[in-house]
UniProtKB/TrEMBL annotation:
Its main location: membrane. Pfam families: HAMP, HATPase_c, HisKA. Residues 216-268 form the HAMP domain. Residues 480-499 are annotated as: Disordered. This is histidine kinase. It comes from Stigmatella aurantiaca.
Length: 499
């Protein structure tokens, strides 16, 4: 047998690696999308909600602040504790306490503190955080309320956000109220994200274990199939392919075993045929060698009469050798069927006519009794198969006896019986009668009956034998074709014929 192709190699050559990729890559993408995307979306929504809440508190506070009085607060008022400063600080402190925010302060348009609850900055000091939120501050000074876009970390290590709202006086923005609130829930959100990451890692680990176990479960039977296929490829046709419990792989194993059995049978048949050919060819070659030597001696001695006899014997051996080669080729080659409608009575009659001379020479009558049925078959090949059966029956029948050919419909099949009254086939030989090159005749090749069975099986039929002394029957069963045409009525009423 030819060598097998090299197996694929590389990091993705194994089933385990491919299943790991198939399991883990989509799962990793899913967890990354759900975890990272979910965290970012939740953070953005919560941050936006916090900004709106803080700016709303700032707006509500700014609506209670008198811009005119706020602008009268000057540096040092917090030290002196002026009434205006105390009122503003008390208002900002009440808002701080009621809303639970970290800090509430009021500044003028220059960013200088006029009141600060929770921050502790003195009046007149610039608030450092306003430099970070210039863009938001510009919007507030234009009359909008807004919140800082960037979270900042306080001295306690927590994230904070600031909401801003304008302070109005006579239709003019004269100051800004800022409210700083803690985004403590972001810490919880970060913890949730870490927990999700740990859970995702655990899920990926479980998926990896499942992928490895699944791959091993699939790889073991597939590896057994691979080993069986490699054994067959190396020429080991005797080791059976073990069955597999999994349905799909079991089908592959069963079909591989059927293929192995077919190859083993064909290999055994080929070896048997080669041995048979060698055995059959040896005898005529030995005869040719013997008679050619005698012929050479007679030619040298001038005995032309005896030389002619040797030539005849040589020609006979050559003819037998040629028949062996023809039978061997006919049995070995795969002949495609050329199916066409064939009338069963005509098929049996043609086979008998081809052996009429041989039967008459032995004093054997051939009788045909066939029910009219149309078969879909290769007429020439099927005739050749029947000729082998009839010839075998004629050779076995005693002189003066009869070989009977009958054809009858039996259900959905057509049965052809070839019966003779010869001595029969002994029971031990009946089991080997269809083996190639098995013969009990001195000049038989042993390929006639195996070739007949091969042709009949190619037609979807079967050939069997029942034999006892005085009664031997070869039975051919073939699938039925279409019923005969109405125009063949005369043939239907035709009585049994003898050849």
């Amino acid at each position: 047998m030819s060598g097998t192709a090299p197996l694929p190699t590389g990091p993705l050559a194994s089933l385990t690696a491919r299943l790991l990729l198939a399991f883990l890559v989509p799962a990793l993408g899913f967890f990354a999308l759900m975890g990272g995307g979910g965290y970012a979306l939740a953070r953005a929504i919560l941050e936006e909600e916090l900004g709106q809440s803080l700016s709303a508190i700032a707006a509500a506070t700014a609506s209670q602040v008198s811009g005119e009085r706020m602008l009268t607060i000057e540096p040092g008022d917090d030290v002196q504790g002026t009434r205006t400063w105390r009122n503003l600080t008390r208002l900002l402190g009440e808002v701080q306490q009621a809303s639970g925010v970290r800090r509430v302060y009021a500044v003028d348009t220059q960013g200088r503190v006029r009141g600060d609850a929770g921050g502790g900055l003195p009046v007149g000091t610039e608030v450092p955080e306003l430099a970070r939120d210039r863009r938001e501050l510009a919007r507030v000074l234009a009359g909008e309320r807004t919140a800082s876009q960037v979270l900042f970390t306080g001295s306690d290590g927590r994230p904070y956000k600031t909401g801003y709202a304008p302070v109005w006086q006579a239709g003019q923005v004269v100051g800004v109220v800022g409210v700083e609130g803690s985004a403590a829930f972001f810490v919880l959100l970060a913890g949730l994200s870490r927990a999700f990451t740990v859970a995702s890692g655990a899920a990926l680990a479980v998926l990896a274990v499942v992928a490895v176990l699944t791959a091993r479960g699939l790889a073991r039977p597939l590896r057994r199939l691979m080993d069986s296929a490699l054994r067959i490829g190396r020429g080991d046709l005797t080791t059976p392919v073990p069955p597999e419990p999994t349905r799909e792989i079991g089908v592959l194993a069963r079909e591989l075993e059927v293929m192995r059995q077919a190859l083993e049978s064909r290999d055994r048949q080929l070896k048997l045929m080669l041995a048979g050919v060698a055995h059959e060819v040896r005898n005529p070659i030995g005869g040719i060698e013997l008679f050619s030597g005698l012929l050479a001696e007679d030619v040298r001695a001038g005995s032309l009469a005896e030389a002619g006899g040797h030539v005849t014997r040589i020609q006979r051996e050559v003819a037998y050798l040629q028949r062996i080669v023809e039978d061997f080729l006919a049995f070995a080659r795969e002949q495609p069927l050329a199916r066409a409608p064939v009338e069963a009575p005509a098929l049996l009659s043609d086979a008998c006519e081809l052996l009429a001379v041989e039967a008459e020479a032995k004093g054997v009558r051939l009788k045909v009794d066939a029910a009219p049925v149309r078969l879909e078959a290769d007429g020439s090949l099927l005739t050749a198969a029947l000729v082998n059966l009839v010839k075998n029956a004629v050779q076995a029948a005693p002189p003066g006896s009869q070989v009977q050919l009958t054809g009858r419909s039996e259900g959905e099949r057509y049965a052809i019986h070839v019966q003779d009254g010869g001595p029969g086939v002994p029971a031990p030989e009946q089991e080997r009668i269809f083996e190639p090159f098995f013969t009990t005749r001195e000049k038989g090749t042993g390929l006639g009956l195996p070739l007949a069975r091969k042709i009949i099986r190619a037609h979807g039929g079967e050939l069997s034998l029942t034999s006892s002394p005085g009664h031997t029957v070869f039975t051919v069963t073939l699938p039925l074709g279409r019923p005969p045409a109405a125009s063949s009525g005369a043939e239907q009423s035709r009585p049994p014929s003898e050849v």
